[in-house]
Design goal:
The complex is a heterodimer of chains A (about 240) and B (about 150). Chain A is of the alpha/beta class and about 240 residues long. Chain A is built from seven helices and eight strands. Chain B is elongated and about 95 Å long. The chains are: A alpha/beta (about 240), B alpha/beta (about 150). The interface between A and B is large, with 45 and 54 residues.
């Protein structure tokens, strides 16, 4: 009897493959309407990452290896200091092109209070809600902070002949950069890693946890934009 | 002073009568715990590794797109797209998304995930085309299937 049961068990173990549904999560941008106008962005506000057919990386006009990408992206995201953990940094220059990082702007409690009142008076509850999120963040951090300008983003352009592996590694490193910064801030301010905050919020749906998550996301937003695919004939090398 | 002789008590062999029960229990445990692969893989996929892994809890919301060289060499070695149980063309993806969406309950149709299982040596051209089609079909939640590894320093 035991032999038969063992046989069955081993047969089952050998024949089943456990499907693991895990991977890197991404939200694709909605399709671009044909009449959308090009937005002007300041040169320093975009962190350009390009990959070519030889699986090489061109980051801000410099050739980097995949291992260096994360630190580069972190520098870009910290930019001129967050006002919380990273002390004010002067505009850093990099390479010969004098690449400047985006200027982080102070978010101050006094300004926000006035702004909130003006939005409420103007009958814009959604805008007022967004201001209130920032006020909550300031309360949780215990001080004013500096935010990235709205136009700051990481732009990723992939050649059609890049390997999928490299593409995923780039996506992964960029996400790792944001996650590490978030963890660092979260540990310093809330004594808990950002990943653990998210995991606990997923289980309990506690508002206080969500407030902390939103606060950290306000300081380090995840802005990875993938460029619209272009033909190499348009010459983007 | 060896006056005291150690008494050796005879112990019988452990009964194995309950062994089948235990093994059956193990068997049933594995049967319940494993999720059977619902579709046959017709393309060869070696998943890349990544450290920032997200795991989808609600498996019934996931639909799969496999991209890789065909298992059967007669179909060539160039990467192909597999939807459900057959090879497909990029142009078919929009219809496929619509159909798959209808298989979900109405309230969950917007929550559909598309899991892209792409072989790591595939060129991005195919993948980009598929992504563009997914955007047009408004299937915007995408998971790039990967196996987990440690974060690099």
């Amino acid at each position: 009897m035991a032999d038969i049961a063992f046989l069955l068990l081993i047969f089952w173990l050998v024949t089943t493959t456990i499907d693991s549904d895990e991977g890197v999560k991404r939200q694709l941008p909605p399709p671009v309407p044909p009449d959308m106008e090009q937005q002007e962005v300041k040169d320093g506000d975009v962190y350009n990452v390009r990959t070519n057919f030889r699986d090489e990386l061109l980051v801000e006009k410099e050739v980097l290896s995949i291992g260096e990408l994360k630190d580069g992206a972190k520098d870009f995201l910290i930019a001129t200091g967050t006002g919380l953990l990273h002390p004010e940094r002067p505009n850093v220059t990099l390479g010969d092109d004098n690449m400047k990082y985006p200027e982080r702007q102070w978010v101050r409690k006094v300004d926000l209070m006035a702004l909130e009142q003006s939005y409420i008076a103007a009958g814009q509850p959604k805008a007022a809600e967004r201001v209130r999120e920032k006020l909550t963040a300031i309360e949780l951090f215990g001080s004013d902070y500096k935010e990235l300008p709205g136009s700051a983003l990481i732009s990723l352009q992939t050649d059609r002949s890049t390997s999928y592996d490299l593409y995923l590694q780039v996506q992964n490193e960029l996400e790792a950069a944001v996650n590490e910064l978030r963890d660092e801030l979260s540990l310093a301010k809330f004594n808990e890693s950002y990943a653990s905050l998210e995991e606990r919020y997923g289980r309990t749906k506690e508002q206080s946890l969500l407030d902390k998550i939103v606060a950290i996301r306000l300081v380090y937003p995840q802005r990875i934009s993938e460029a619209e695919p272009r033909d190499a004939s348009q010459g983007y090398y | 002073m060896g006056k005291f002789k150690k008494k050796k008590r005879e112990t019988g062999a452990i009964s194995t009568a309950s062994l089948p029960d235990i093994v059956f229990m193990l068997l049933f445990f594995f049967m319940v715990a494993t999720v059977l692969r619902t579709e046959e893989e017709m393309v060869r996929v070696v998943r890349p590794e990544a450290s920032e892994i997200y795991k989808i809890e609600k498996k019934h919301l996931i639909r799969y797109i496999n991209i890789g060289p065909p298992q059967d060499k007669r179909y060539g070695t160039e990467p192909v797209i597999q939807l459900n149980d057959q090879f497909a063309d990029v142009a078919q993806i929009r219809d496929w998304v619509e159909n798959e969406r209808l298989t979900l309950a109405e309230a969950e149709q917007t929550k559909m995930w598309v899991s892209m299982k792409v072989d790591q040596d595939t060129k991005m051209g195919v993948v980009t085309d598929v992504k563009q089609e997914l955007r047009k079909a408004s299937a915007l939640k995408v998971l790039y299937s990967a196996s987990s590894r440690e974060r690099t320093n």
